[in-house]
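Milestone M4 deliverable, item 7.
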Amino acid sequence: MNSLIELLLPSLWDTLYMVFTSLLFTILLGLPLGIVLVVTEKDHILPNSIVYNVLSYVINMTRSLPFIILMIFIIPFTRLIVGTTIGTTAAIIPLVIAAIPFFARVVESGLKEVDWGVIEASIAMGATPLQIIVHVLIPEAMSSLALGVTITLINILGYSAMAGVVGGGGLGDLAVRYGYHRFQTEVMLATVLVLIVLVQIIQLCGNKVAEILNKK
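Output delivered:
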């Protein structure tokens, strides 16, 4: 039992490091992309068909790549950024690239739920596009965005387990090295159980935050 815990704890830490670091960069880069997707749509506050169509195409193209293929495809870029393609830090690069387009679409969906009447009222009061984005769109969509972050976080967690298959570290790597190659079923089961618990905790916390924000 002790040896199992000693195996799980470092791998769990590696997974949490990968997942939450990736989430941070995903939000920083994906949120602006989602906002641009919404505001550049036809009849929105900054309509621009060229920007919208190009950005939408790039996002759809990136989302269509399976994560394993994406990891292999961007190996030169990963090596350029972190100097290696093996380990938890290296795995963050493909995790972020895979999660950004997903989160951008989630942000787009959440912002589209904002009542257009509220936006029209802001325009009538002379608000600039930036003011509308900062003071109307984002605050009004906070509950939906919180749920979007939750879904994205769970998605990244799933990607991180796959990253372990190709040397990304974390729980996925532990499951492959011990559960698969060494036929230690108890390690595989323990890894699956930890992942299930993590997903449940993330979902419960995300739902609670979204509920609190919705009441406001």
